[in-house]
Each structure stands twice: as C-alpha cells, then as structure tokens.
Amino acid sequence: MASAPKPNLPIFFNDLMPLNSRDHSGWHSTQFPDVSFLSNHHAIPVTVDEFIDTQRHYPIVFSAGDNPVPLALMGLNEGVNTFVDDEGKITDDVYLPAYVRRYPFMLAKLQPDSEELSLCFDPSAGVVGDHSDGNALFDDKNEPTEYTKGVLDFCQKFEESGARTKNFMEEIKKHGLLMDGEIAITMQDNPDKPFVYRGFQMVDENKLRELKGDVLESLAGNGMLMLLHAHLFSLNLMRVIFSRQSRLGKVPQPEAST
C-alpha cells in the first residue's frame, strides 16, 4: 500500500534539468492550472516538520522496507487520491505537503560523487519554460530573481527538513519501534468481509510503552515523542479516507490486500 519513492526518479518527476542562466535566461515559471500531477498518487512523502499539520487531514504511515519514509495517505489504494477531483482540483481545504508544493523544482546532485546540490526542475511539467508571462527566473544581468531565490530557499529548507526526518527515522528504528502495519475495515452492509490493508509500517504502541524512563525522557525532550503520538493519532483517519473512497466508488474487493 505504501512503497518508498524510487531514489533515481522521485514521484511526480519525469525528467530533471539543471536551472542555469546560460540556457534559461529568458525563461519564466507559471502556476499550475491544477494539480492533476497529484491525482494518481495516494501516498505523498512528508517530513517530521509537517507531522502536526498533516495528522489533521491524513493518516501518516511509514513505507515498507529497510529504509522507511513517512507518507501522508491521500487514498488507501494505488492510483486513488480522494482529495483531487476529475478536473485536477483539490476538493477540500486541507494541508498540502511541501513535497507537492515544491514541484516542479528540487535540489539534486549533478554528479554522483559530489555533495553539491543544484536547483533543478522537471521540464515535462510544462510550467517552467520560454513563456511570455509568469515569474522571471533571471533578471537583465542574468542574476537569479527574487522569485528564483525564494524557490531555492524553499528547496534548501526542504532538504534540511529531510535531514531531520532521516534522523527521526534512525532513532525510532534504533529503539525497534516500527512494526508491519495492518488495518481491517468493515462496511455495515457486509460486516463479514473486511477490507484488509497491509504493506506499510507503523509504530508499535506496546514497544513504545515499554521504553525505559531515560529513553522516554530523551524522546520527549527532543520532540520526537510528540511526533510519534501525532502519527498514532492520525491512524484513526484511515477509516475516514476509506469512507471517502467508498463515496467515490473506488473501493476494491473485500479482503483484498494492497
């Protein structure tokens, strides 16, 4: 149900092009007319800095595998996003993860053996190009405009938040707090045939309660305990998302696992 994005091709991105004044001096960035690029994605990466905002609207789970990442579930099944309509519009006044708001830009390494990150964009998105309107990327002196500086700052802050998220994941793995997740949801008209969802990880509440005082004190002091509780509270929204799918007629067959 929740797979980690492929490291060589992050979700949404079909291509990556480094932004530079030589090739893109007269280019502009326009706004997306909609978020149709989001409509077929149900699990969106989120950072720990977003947990409090995210848990108000979406369940937060962790992807399966040895290197899990936090994900906000906008749907429970592959290809189903219950917050984007057929016209590519967001249907509710909900928090939109920074990963979505960053697109089509991101910081990326141009050389595998280099630590330097460069501002890149996805040319297939169609919003960055040789347009006559929109936000200019470079000024008359081929220097980055305030808009481009703002994009770069946002992407840098996203990377910093990503580093904090990595530390968070390493900490909860160190204490053995993750377990394979499973949720069974039944409908009133068919209580004997539950819809079973697997393929994700979640915090084991029993192991969390078994932590020694000094470990709990450390987790409380660095703010991680609050984030763990935000994750656990958010799981109550799984049934809410399921109900949204049901109203849209996008519920799979009972007893199917994803």
Number of helices: 8
Which regions contain 5 or more consecutive residues with pLDDT less than 50? Answer: none
Q: Domains counted in the coordinates: how many?
A: 1
The rounded distance between the terminal residues' Cα atoms is 5 Å
Topology order in helix (H) and strand (E) letters: EHEEHEEHEEEEHEEHHHH
| Number of extended strands | 11
Query: Taking all residues together, what is the mean pLDDT?
Result: 93
Strand arrangement across the biggest beta sheet: 3-5-4-11-10
Strand content: 15-25%
Describe the protein's architecture and organization:
- By secondary structure, this protein is an alpha+beta fold.
- It has one domain.
- The chain is 30% helix and 21% strand.
- It has helices spanning 21-24, 51-54, 98-102, 146-174, 205-209, 213-221, 224-234, 238-247, and strands spanning 17-18, 28-29, 43-45, 60-63, 70-73, 105-109, 117-121, 128-129, 135-136, 178-187, 190-203.
- The strands form 3 sheets. The protein has a 5-stranded antiparallel β-sheet, with helices on both faces. Strands 1-7-6 form a 3-stranded antiparallel β-sheet, with helices on one face.
- It is globular.
- The protein starts with 16 loop residues before the first strand and ends in an 11-residue tail after the last helix.
